[in-house]
Specification:
Order of helices and strands: EHHEHEHEEHEHEHHH
Helix content: 40-55%
Number of helices: 9
Number of strands: 7
Structural class: alpha/beta
CATH topology: Rossmann fold
CATH class: Alpha Beta
Largest sheet: 5 strands, parallel
Length: 220
């Protein structure tokens, strides 16, 4: 049994992949056809992301499975992670005692995204009990939406997946699509603005994104 699974963040690049698959273009270009898509929900995305996700689900494409490790904002306030251990830190900005600025190491992606996707694959797709081995006759590949202008991110992700013995592919990279190409494709395919997927308090935002979030999102 083979599974081809899209890691769906519901942002620009992964939305482009989901729709390229639905339109049959990935199969024509690369011989790829997804069997599932997985959305790892931190429960702290902007409202626009959840609304966009509902629109994607309404299209009737490959099934979108959802998983979560809990609400990351609540865990952050309690100083705990989802298993009540030391919190997996977000990349928050800090002010050092000498007045210089710093940033905390990002650990949240692993627990609230990567591990959630793996759990959905094992339990909901393959149907494994906890701690059971994946049968030898079962193979799967994860597909990620890193684009051609993100070679560093793609290389780092590939290394992490290979260390765990998991197969990963980057269709946009193989097609040499940049984020701009994805945005252009979506203009003629999606009847609304495709939001950027990130927690409402994620520090990796521009001033413009913070302003838009403050004006438009109930969570802000």
């Amino acid at each position: 049994m083979e599974y081809h699974i899209l890691n769906l963040g519901a942002g620009v690049q992964s939305t482009a992949l989901y729709l390229l698959d639905a339109d049959g273009e990935l199969k024509d270009e690369l011989g790829i056809k997804f069997t599932h898509a997985i959305f790892a929900d931190t429960q702290e995305e902007p409202d626009s992301v959840y609304e966009h996700l509902e629109w994607l689900e309404s299209l009737g494409g490959v099934p979108i499975l959802k998983g979560t490790a809990g609400k990351i904002g609540d865990d952050l306030l309690k100083g705990e992670n989802s298993t009540k251990q030391r919190f997996a830190s977000i990349p928050a900005f800090t002010l050092n005692s000498d007045g210089s600025k710093g940033m905390i190491r990002r650990q949240c992606t692993s627990e609230y995204k990567i591990q959630v996707v793996e759990r959905v694959i094992r339990r909901d797709i393959i149907g494994l009990e906890p701690r059971k081995r994946i049968p030898k006759n079962v193979t799967f590949t994860q597909y990620m939406g890193f684009s051609f202008d993100e070679p560093g991110r793609a290389a780092r992700a590939k290394g992490r997946f290979e260390q765990r013995g998991w197969n990963v592919m980057f269709p946009l990279f193989e097609m040499q699509w940049k984020r701009f190409d994805c945005a252009e494709y979506l203009k003629g395919r999606v009847p609304h603005h495709v939001p950027r997927s990130a927690c409402v308090f994620c520090p990796y935002k521009s001033d413009r994104e913070w302003a838009n979030l403050k004006e438009s999102d109930e969570s802000g």
